Amino acid sequence: AHDDSKGRDAFAFDPLSSHYLEVADDLRIRTPYSKTVLEELRAVPWASWDDELRVWRVPFRAYEELRRRWPSIERAAQRAEPEERKRRREAGKHSDEHKAARLRHAERRRRRYPVPAEDLPPLGRAVATVQYDVVVFTGISGELADPSELAPFYPQSMETGFGAVWARWRPPTLAELIKTWPARRPAGSAERSRGWWRPTLGELRIARRKVKSLERRKRSRSAD
User: Other C-beta atoms within 10 Å of 72: how many?
Assistant: First the structure.
């Protein structure tokens, strides 16, 4: 109680003024969702989330720590406002990074991958790749890959010195990932430069989590 009284006096002497902050029996913070805001408030002693009011509640005894962190909290909250998010998205659409991301996405949707003509991957088995993590190759087209198409998306294929051909791929199923026998060691530089290798247990675990997460999202959409 004494510390709360001191905190009230500190607030009265040097108050925070923000539309994200309400003053009641304690201090109540309501902002758009922001990971930074969460991290900052979790670091404030005695701060707690009120699920009924949908606010963070901070007792006055923690006012000094809240005030110290407030500039970061307010900046993050302002960046998380819907209009500000929309503005950044619109601005980002014209950036080089956004254009490059769109090109990478379009290339991924083609479900093709360059492999050395002299060192082809096994078909129907889960293997790891540089760009697309763990995949299953379904066929080799035999079509030679044009170096001008490789450079932006598959730089490792430019380093091998061997001609590359296009292979078709698809995502693995959970059953295929469970069935795959893992490699004992991580891939070496030679395997990575050719673009594919036998996955380790760690790589398989990550791939399994991704597949499980995708399946959960599909079930959730079906239920909705």
Answer: 13
